Amino acid sequence: MTTDPSAPPAPPITSPSDALAELVAGNKRFVSGRPEHGHRVSAAAAASGSQQPHAVVLGCIDSRVPLEAIFDQTFGSICVVRSGAHVVDRAVLGSVDFAVAKLGVPLIMVLGHKRCGAVQSTIDALRTDHRPGGDIGYLVDQIAPAVLSVGLDDPEVAAKAMRAHVAATVSRMHDIEGIPAAVAADRVEVVGAVYDLDTGLVDLLP
User: Fold this and answer.
1) Degrees to nearest 5, angle at CA 59 with 12 and 157
2) Among 19, 43, 65, 151, fewest CB within 10 Å belongs to which?
3) What is the reported pTM?
4) Beta strands in 31-106 (DSSP E)
5) Residue pair 172/97 in contact by the 8 Å Cβ criterion
6) Are the beta carbons of 55 and 79 closer than 8 angstroms?
């Protein structure tokens, strides 16, 4: 099923709860094999004049996790920010800040995924005491606290560290100027989630 480009546009989503419900519903459509949005050029043209996205999703660069697809979102629906293991730097913080302050998105989602290569590289680096050189080392440094909080001897260190890293990144979102006040006023919600590469399901963190 695809969206009829001649249909009137749906009213914009402006509340955090409605934005999260749309992402969850879209993920269910994606998993069930009944997506609504086919990413046709007519949809791109229809959204080209202006935008009122309802979420900014911070995810990993992993090619197996295309964010618009797994949430079944069309053009103009979500802002996407991606980095290795959704590691945060000033550019990422500024991008999220722009989405909230200038575009008015009511939802910030931090999305990790299972079997993340950056997380596994960090585990390997800590176990061998060999930090990668260059900018990959920066990624390892940023992920390492989550891995160490779980413990290298834990048999589920990769999965648990990913969830801990998502939670830490969610906390970082509250460092953005204006976000704590917006959250307190129920204008914005910040949530964390993990994507299952095998099933396609997105699991929201408590």
Assistant:
1) 140
2) 151
3) 0.85
4) 55-60, 78-83
5) no
6) yes
